[in-house]
């Protein structure tokens, strides 16, 4: 059976999801008209809202009955995610995101940076209203780690000696950590101390799989279906897993090895065609796919601590769906 | 007697100030080397640390005996201030701040935006450790208002019909609000509910005076003494008080009025010399100076609720010193 996002992931929390969306709109309300227009623009440009949906499903799966705080938490997660996208678009000078003009392109860099700052602050403000110390500490530490992960990625740009371990540290910070906050936060709201670790592991492994798949797609997708340009990572000299694996699977003194090595070191896409074929022929893609599968398996395994429910099943479906992107 | 910053402002809290500085260094510790280098660079490029000193003085003036939390709070204030400067430098594409290369110039925009985000998150993380709900709520709301104030400033760029009231809203957000957090936060730590309002008023009026003076200097200072270029605000079409006053003090159908009106609307410095002389000859500068004096008087008046002490005196000296910049 093919997994369908709406039917097999969203449906069990569709009602909470609608309420959460309404809460995001209240959250970005501001007496400053420009803050509101920009926030509205960037929040509406959001994608599938995977992170808040994960948060809502996790809350239900952990046994939360009154979903008020969980809806707020899901909105907070999405606002934090949106803030990072807005800042990413400024630093990457992106003009489009998911086919829509970015905030920096529609307004300017100043507005985009400041509205990003506003969204971070408002997310914390809404979080404070929930009045839960454990939750607050988890988020304040987590957001530091997210920023650190993004800087670590910059630090390793153009470094061909990056290892898989370094890569995992980077993607944990820049991607998996926010997923972890979404699900562990839900377990905290449920008051289920014993579920915290399981929920964190689910989201952490899911996030790793999700990012590995994203990095594979940078060498295999076509631009039209994804809104992502092939070769973006290579352009920036990012040592992602497909390249790290390709370096490991080719011998140091081969031309293939040297082309990948040099491409990371210099960035640019002048050897893009060659790098793509090396990644494919060296077995690097198979290796990455295998790693994504392993991470997905670990994610699903972590869920088994929770009692069986349609919500747990939906979390499992979501993990499977992410993997389906490349199969 | 001329007020001396070190002797008449800093001295009463010199010991706490040194400990606070140490705490900032611990606060910016990160396992990511690049995060640490950039944070260290931008924190060290800081100026007189007026905001944390104000926080320490306010804590003492409100009767705080154990200064541990106050030192932490002062460090948090400085970290938030630093984060806004780092982001400002990115959006203004500034290469120098106080004669030192900016983070965006030394590294790049990406690094600067992300380290700014890290500093905001770390500031919240340290704040959560103090475990005081009132303090946390004040800061989470306040940081939203600061971002909103900065966006409001962008919204009113190139708008000659901005009023003094709009101007006051802008400077309250972008400047005074952080000063308020510094002193009201100290009153919260002191557990002195009755001092909260007085401390907020002191800092709010001080901040207004400070910003009005800064805006006067944009039309009167020389670049060498200030590290600020004359005409920066005019360049960006910012309707600051000197221009708002000049428009009010000249008749609509005069050439002078039209030059100022047009300069705000278009930005640029092609009429800088003329605008400077209009600001001076129309009585706008005197008006601004008068307003700065009034704000300073209100700041000092608000202090009178506190018991007399060397700390209260130092806060009064600080307000006086800010005014001395233009006399």
TrEMBL record, chains A, B:
<keyword id="KW-0479">Metal-binding</keyword>
<dbReference type="Pfam" id="PF00348">
    <property type="entry name" value="polyprenyl_synt"/>
</dbReference>
<dbReference type="InterPro" id="IPR008949">
    <property type="entry name" value="Isoprenoid_synthase_dom_sf"/>
</dbReference>
<comment type="similarity">
    <text>Belongs to the FPP/GGPP synthase family.</text>
</comment>
<dbReference type="GO" id="GO:0004659">
    <property type="term" value="F:prenyltransferase activity"/>
</dbReference>
<dbReference type="InterPro" id="IPR000092">
    <property type="entry name" value="Polyprenyl_synt"/>
</dbReference>
<dbReference type="GO" id="GO:0046872">
    <property type="term" value="F:metal ion binding"/>
</dbReference>
<keyword id="KW-0460">Magnesium</keyword>
<dbReference type="InterPro" id="IPR033749">
    <property type="entry name" value="Polyprenyl_synt_CS"/>
</dbReference>
<keyword id="KW-0808">Transferase</keyword>
<dbReference type="GO" id="GO:0008299">
    <property type="term" value="P:isoprenoid biosynthetic process"/>
</dbReference>
<protein>
    <submittedName>
        <fullName>Octaprenyl-diphosphate synthase</fullName>
    </submittedName>
</protein>
